Amino acid sequence: MIEVLTTTDSQKLLHQLNALLEQEPRCQPKVCGLRLIESAYDKGLRMTARLRDFEVKDLLSLTQFFGFDTETFSLAVNLLDRFLSKMKVQPKHLGCVGLSCFYLAVKSIEEERNVPLASDLIRISQYRFTVSDLMRMEKIVLEKVCWKVKATTAFQFLQLYYSLIQENLPFERRNSLNFERLEAQLKACHCRILFSKARPSVLALSIIALEIQAQKCVELTEVIECLQKHSKDYYSNKNFSEAFRHNPEGWIP
Question: Total domain count for the chain?
Answer without folding.
Answer: 2
